[in-house]
Amino acid sequence: MTGTLTLSAIPSIDAEPFDLRRVGAHPDYWYPVAWSTDLKPGKTLGREFAGEPIALYRGKSGKAFAVEDRCAHRQVPLHLGVVAGDTLKCGYHGWTYDCTGRCVDVPYVGAERIPNGVRAYPCQEIDGLIFIFPGDPALASSRAPASLGSAMNGGYKTRRLNREVNAHYTFMHENLMDMNHQFLHRRQMGAIKAHCLGRRSGDDWCEVDYTFSRSTGVGPLGELAILGTFRPNGGGDNKDLMTIRTGYPYQDLRVWVGKGDPVLHVWLGYLPMGEKQDSTRVFGYLSVRRPGIPGLIDAAWPIVTWFTERIFTEDKHIVELEQAAHDAQGTDWNQEVFPAIRSLRNVLSRCGAPLTTASGRN
Questions:
Q1: Residue 37 class from Cβ within 10 Å (0-12 exposed, 13-18 middle, 19+ buried)?
Q2: What is the pLDDT of residue 17?
Q3: Minimal CA–CA distance to 222: which of 151, 159, 180?
Q4: Please, what are the domains in the chain?
Q5: Cβ neighbours around 17 below 10 Å, total
Q6: Mapped to the 3 state alphabet, what secondary structure does the chain carry?
Q7: Are 5 and 50 in contact (CB under 8 A)?
Q8: pLDDT tens track, the chain, 362 positions
Q9: How many angstroms separate the CA atoms of 288 and 158, rounded?
């Protein structure tokens, strides 16, 4: 392996100096790597987790499998190979691997000379996403997420969130949880201010509650398309409740207007990329509750998509600038004062794994 994640005690962020961007995503969790619809029967995909190449393939049985994306023979990518039944043949010499990574055939030698195989990863599909478990397989069955937000709930209309961001995954957690950054979205949201109502935390989770007020004007059309039909009189100063939770390693955001189910539910999973994990592929679902008027949310969906894409584009740009500042300075110089984010940073540092390269350099 070109890089490994090893575990050791990580100090609290209150113990300086400390660089959260040198904390890797812990491998003993399930991570989304592809949409189920992107992996057709008999086809392959090349993916990675924290710099480690992974070959996905869907066999004749219809099941998705994941193995190390390096043939044991010449180390060429297995995702360039050929699916045969529920096995994968290397495209170079035809060495064949089963779903456990065991080499089961070398066409030009006898069975007694078949070498060792490659690593296989636990793999399963949940709510339309393919997940792999890069850590200890003995922990896999107990740590799978039951569902991904409200994506499969027919009472909601849902869109996929899918983008690559050139920033460490911890920047993504901080950006979503800190609603004080609404000033960034002033052109999209107008004069809106977040009010923190409270926070809670545990060993591997934390969450924070917000409500919002508007000093001038009315909400933008995209906000009204999502929330307006659920508010008395369609808007104005409101007492919407937003709860944002990091339940390691995932995040979700829910918004309530009055009683009942959340009006908005966002679920996010972050796939660390590169040996330094300084880029992230974001997979997620944004679900909006269907109002009582049939077809209304469908008619408004282009506005919802346009509005949320503009918000996400601003978030992507700003966290990439944070990563660029970290790279230029060589360490994490952030001076964090907001208690909810300090709690989040402690959860991420506690649950993560130190980054260690093959050469042993941190």
A1: exposed
A2: 61
A3: 159
A4: 39-142 (2.102.10.10), 156-357 (3.90.380.10)
A5: 8
A6: CCEEECCCCCCCCCCCCCCHHHEECCCCCCEEEEEHHHCCCCCEEEEEECCEEEEEEECCCCCEEEEECCCCCCCCCHHHCEEECCEEECCCCCCEECCCCCEEECCCCCHHHCCCCCCEECEEEECCEEEECCCCHHHHHHCCCCCCCCCCCCCEEEEEEEEEECCCHHHHHHHHHCHHHHHHHHHHHCCEEEEEEEEEECCCEEEEEEEEEECCCCCCHHHHHHHHHHCHHHCCCCCCEEEEEEECCEEEEEEECCCCCCCEEEEEEEEEECCCCCEEEEEEEEEEECCCCCCHHHHHHHHHHHHHHHHHHHHHHHHHHHHHHHHHHCCCCCCCCCHHHHHHHHHHHHHCEEEEECCCCC
A7: yes
A8: 333 333 344 555 555 467 999 999 999 999 999 999 999 999 999 999 999 999 999 999 999 999 999 998 889 999 999 999 999 999 988 989 999 999 998 888 876 778 889 999 999 999 999 999 999 999 999 999 989 999 999 999 999 999 999 999 999 999 999 999 988 888 888 788 899 999 999 999 999 999 988 877 667 778 878 876 666 654 444 578 999 999 999 999 999 997 789 999 999 999 999 999 999 999 999 999 998 888 899 999 999 999 999 999 999 999 999 999 999 999 888 888 999 999 999 999 999 998 865 433 34
A9: 6
Q: What's the rounded Cα separation, in Å, for the pair 20 and 166?
A: 16
Calpha distance 60→328 (Å, rounded): 49
103: alpha, beta or left? (left if phi > 0; alpha if psi -120 to 50)? beta
270: its two tokens: 């972050």
Q: Which token pair is 44?
A: 């392959």
Least Cα distance to 10 among 355, 349, 362 occurs for 349
pLDDT at residue 233, rounded to an integer = 52
d(CA 87, CA 72): 15
- Token pair 């039951």: residue: 146
Amino acid at 13: I
**Residue tagged 């709930």 (tokens):** 153
Q: Work out the angle at residue 268's Cα, subtended by the Cα atoms of residues 263 and 273, and round it to the nearest 5 degrees.
A: 165
